[in-house]
Each structure stands twice: as structure tokens, then as C-alpha cells.
Amino acid sequence: MSSKTYDAIIIGAGIVGSACAAECAREGMSVAIVEAGIVGGGATAAGMGHLVVMDDSEAQFALTRYSQQLWDEISDELPREVEHDACGTIWIAADDEEMAEARRKEKFYSDRGVKTEILDAQSLAEAEPNLRPGLVGGLRVPGDSVIYPPCAAQFFVDQATSKGAQLFPGVAVDAITGDGVRLRNGTSINGGLIVNSAGSSSSSLTRGLEVKKRKGHLVITDRYPDFVRHQLVELGYLKSAHTLTAESVAFNVQPRKTGQLLIGSSRQFGVDDARVDTSILTLMLDRAVEYLPGLGKLSSLRTWTGFRAATPDKLPLIGPHAEHDRLYLATGHEGLGITTSLATAKLLVAQIMNRETKISVTPYLPARMAQETRHA
Ligand SMILES: Cc1cc2nc3c(=O)[nH]c(=O)nc-3n(C[C@H](O)[C@H](O)[C@H](O)COP(=O)(O)OP(=O)(O)OC[C@H]3O[C@@H](n4cnc5c(N)ncnc54)[C@H](O)[C@@H]3O)c2cc1C
Questions:
Q1: CA dist 343 to 10, 70, 135, 287, 319, Å?
Q2: pLDDT by residue (tens digit) across 215-247?
Q3: Counting atoms of ligand 1 from 1, which one is nearest the CA of 44?
Q4: DSSP assignment, residue 132?
Q5: Beta-strand pair 327-331/188-196
Q6: What are the DSSP calls for 6-46, one per residue?
Q7: Alpha carbon of 333 to those of 54, 131, 153, 317: distances in Å?
Q8: E strands within the chain?
Q9: Which of 39, 54, 116, 173 has CB atoms 3.0–4.6 Å from 13's, for a disulfide?
Q10: What is the pLDDT of residue 375?
Q11: What is the enclosing helix (H) or strand (E) of 171?
Q12: Is 335 a pocket residue for ligand 1 (Cβ < 6 Å)?
């Protein structure tokens, strides 16, 4: 396919691969981006685009916080179609136990320099009048924001190609070889190093990777400007998002710049079928209507599903493969890959260039997972 030998071959032009490609190209590397479908067409197109600081662990916090700072740094450069909206998040407490969680979260964030604001029942109702009465309060995190992820991926690919990277769209990698990648069309591309950023398909290219598909559903409505003003997430979300086995739904609603509402979210393991599952969808929408009763009267336009790439310890794999020195991994970002794409790219390239990193890479190193990996 190409007689050239690239410094880096990036497999997958989701938001993670695209951000890595832009960063590699910025460092002067010659880059090939090989994408089986279209740019940003995988989980990146299916995701909500909530850029959110999370505190499930110190490592998760460090990565999301660092990445959010990187998004803030480029917010003025993002093209209009990326729809960056600094709407903030409100974590909603339905009872006293969840309010205690809001206070714990508030302390965790403010101890680490993230601005937050505790809302009582009245200030929550004033901030979001369409929420049902009787909620106890919440936590506002004003620094969180929202983007439209496929356009962000395209923006990063454009940055990479403007620095000489070559995009191979509609071209699937069949196998990672000793000196590059073999393509499904029978040809090859040679590269000094290979980055497996194929999202939930990454484990089919690198055997032994503990990356599993975690299905999610989303619904988008017609335009109802100002129906909600922040990304609204129930604090019960934390229970459902962080169990590794259960099939779960949680209230998670996002205002889009278009005036539309994006309604999530569900999580299912062990399901490969991408079709909409009406039983899960019903549970998810019922949950949303519990919090926003007026939602039941609005029109939805489209429902879709996507697959998160989940690792057992809920942290992504960023860095060299434990056994193959020319293979790097940038995968396993589960439900936070839009947020953490930029930090992933920085950490990956710093490791390639043997440079200091702004945050410790240790928690994300692939070597932490016991792997018995052989290439196909
Ligand atoms: C319902 C849902 C809601 C979400 N909400 C959020 C959110 O609000 N905030 C957030 O931060 N994250 C969210 N996420 C997670 C986020 O979408 C993902 O973590 C992120 O998109 C992962 O990006 P990626 O580039 O790793 O994977 P992908 O976007 O899946 O990209 C991988 C690419 O690799 C390509 N590929 C695969 N196999 C091959 C091959 N053999 N050869 C060549 N190319 C190949 C695919 O075509 C694809 O384009 C959500 C996910 C889902 C499913």
C-alpha cells in the first residue's frame, strides 16, 4: 500500500488515535493513521462528549483533571462544529446518603483545586427548574464541559495531516507484524512503532489484552433550548458506572448547543449485538423521566448504541506493550475516553520520546496487567 516506512502507525482514528496522531505529528514524526471506517465513527461517535473530572481513584482523577486542563487550553482553537459548551455538571442527590456522597466529592475536589459548589434543594431547583421536586441537593462542578466528539476527532486528524501525517480511511488492519501492519486488503504499511488505539477492537489485534466491550445506549431529542442547563448526573450513577458485572442504567442528561437533549446512560457487559435493546432502553428512559418528569412529553429523534473499551481496573492502557518494544497501547478508556484523549496523547508521546510527564504514567502502564501476548 505504501513503500514508505513511517515513524509511527496509529491504528484507529477514534478520538484517542486522532489525538495521538496529532501529538506524534507535532513532535515531527512521520505518521500513518489507519482507520477501518471513518474518522471518529466508533465509540467516539456514540459517546456523550462530557468532559468531566472524575474521582473513582486518584489515578482516574489525575488523568481526567490533566486532560480537562488540556481541553481548556485549546478551547479557543476548537472549530465551531466541535460545539464546546462550558455548561458544567450537576451531580444530583436524591436522598441523604447521596448528599453525603456529594459532600465527600466536594471535599475531594476542593482539596485538589477543582472548583465546586454544594447546592441545597432550593438552589438545585433554581438551577434546574425541570427536575422533579423532592430532590435533596447536589454538587455543581462548573469547570466540566461538553463537546461533539466526532468533530473533535476530525480536528485532531486535520492537525496531524497538516503536519504531514497520512490518513488511510476505510482500511482495516488485519495484524500487527514485526515491521508494521498487515492490512485486510493484503498489503502492508511499514512503521518504526505501532500504536494500537483501536478502542473496543484493540484486543482482537493484540492478543491477551484485557479489554472488553461494554455496551451503552443513548437517545437524542428534538430541540428544547434551556430544558436543562448543565450536564445532569445522578449520584447513584457512580454505583452503576463502577460495578464491573451488572447490567445497569443511570440518569445522565446533557444539553447540546443545538438545544437538543442527549439522554443516557446504560452499561452492559457480555453483549456484542449492537442493536438497540428495548428493555434496557425503557429502563433508561424511565429513570430519566423519574428525574425530569417533563421529558416524557418531548420527542426523541434517534437512539443508538456504542461499545466502551473496558479494562478490569477501570483505567486505560497507555504506553509500551510489556513484551513488544515497538508496540504501544492507547486503549481501554471505558466511559471517559473523550475526556482523557488529550492526556493520553501527551503521556504516550512523552514515553515514546523518553521525556518527563506532567503526571505519573505508572497507573496506566500496560505492564501492570499480566499479559501473555502473541501476535497473530
Ligand atoms: C454510550 C456512551 C457514552 C459515553 N459518554 C462519554 C462521555 O460523556 N465522556 C467521555 O469522556 N467518554 C464517553 N464515552 C467513552 C468514549 O466514547 C470512548 O472512551 C472513546 O470514544 C474511545 O475512543 P477510542 O478512540 O479509543 O475508540 P473508538 O472511537 O472506538 O475508535 C477506535 C477506532 O478504531 C477503528 N478500528 C477498529 N479496528 C480497526 C482495525 N482492525 N483497523 C483499523 N481501524 C480499526 C474503529 O473503526 C474506530 O474508529 C462514552 C461511550 C459510550 C459508548
A1: 16, 7, 35, 33, 12
A2: 999 999 999 999 999 999 999 866 655 555 568
A3: 21
A4: P
A5: parallel
A6: EEEEEE--SHHHHHHHHHHHHTT--EEEEESSSTT-SHHHH
A7: 13, 31, 15, 8
A8: 5-11, 31-35, 50-51, 89-93, 117-120, 137-141, 145-146, 166-169, 173-177, 180-183, 188-196, 212-223, 231-234, 248-255, 260-269, 300-310, 317-320, 327-331
A9: 39
A10: 40
A11: none
A12: yes
CA of 25 to the centre of ligand 1 (A): 21
Report residue 268 as a C-alpha cell. 452492559
Residue 104: CB atoms within 10 Å:
13
Please compute the mean of the pLDDT values over residues 100-115 and round it to a whole number. 98
**Does this model's pTM top 0.85?**
yes
Residue 197 beta carbon below 6 angstroms from any ligand 1 atom: yes
17: Cβ below 6 Å to ligand 1?
yes
**DSSP track, 275-343:** S--HHHHHHHHHHHHHH-GGGGGSPEEEEEEEEEEE-TTS--EEEE-SS-TTEEEEE--GGGHHHHHHH
Q: Give the per-residue pLDDT at 178.
A: 87
At 83, is the secondary structure helix, strand, or coil? Answer: coil
Sign of the Cα torsion 33, 326, 352, 195 reads: positive
pLDDT tens-place string over residues 146-173: 999 999 999 999 999 999 999 999 999 9
243: which 3 cell numbers?
460495578
From residue 182, how far is each of 11, 144, 173, 278, 313 by CA, in Å? Answer: 11, 40, 6, 39, 31
Bridge-partner residues for 181, per DSSP?
176, 189
Q: Is 214 exposed, middle or buried (0-12, 13-18, 19+ CB in 10 A)?
A: buried
Does residue 78 contact residue 97 with C-beta atoms inside 8 Å?
Answer: no
Determine how many CB atoms are found less than 10 A away from the CB of residue 367: 13
Residue 216 Cβ contacting ligand 1 at under 6 Å: yes
Cβ–ligand 1 distance for 146 under 6 Å, the answer no
